[in-house]
Amino acid sequence: MNQACPLCNHPQTNEFYTGPRRVYYRCPQCGLIFAAREHLLHPSEEKARYDLHQNDPEDRGYRQFLQQFTQPLLDHLDPPPLRGLDFGSGPQPVLAQMLEAQGYQMAVYDPYYAPDTQSLNSTYDFVTCTETIEHFYEPAKEWSLLVSLVKPGGWLGIMTQLVEHPETFADMHYITDATHVSFYSRHTFRFLAERDHLRVKFINDSVVLFQKPE
Hints:
Elements: E1 14-18, E2 23-26, E3 33-35, H1 43-50, H2 60-76, E4 83-87, H3 94-100, E5 105-109, E6 124-130, H4 139-148, E7 150-159, E8 182-183, H5 186-195, E9 199-202, E10 207-211
């Protein structure tokens, strides 16, 4: 059964890959690969899996993993004071803590662990979204929100494993996590950047920076 793209709303997507647990579709317009809607987890199941994540602030390996994102971001930000938002901060806001240690003022939002939506009523000099965008059930809505939170001239930083070659999608470790439901490529992010008038910069195969025009 055909399913409309949940990111760009293209009405005709193609069945792309059938895995052991679910079916994936691919949009011919924006390139998003997404899990069939009937295979999405219930929120209680989703949170139960997130509760198993080990994001310990004292874990040096985890902090080094995040530095793959924070260092390129810092290279593009003006010096403090600037105000940022970590969207999808998780149970332990380690990324926000790391940026606060650099002198930046940070707010956090997470639908399960920091659900106060007051933080979504402001705009920020930069917004971070690390290992989160692949969990979006409604990526069109959530992407629009992310962009709206960034001030003109500000930055939106994304960290997610890009689908470099669609033909190798079945071999991606990323798809073994049932909470991962939306998969992006450089084509997808270029499409969003052109549509939404953003400047895009690919740092590597998992870190992408967008700048909103002044």
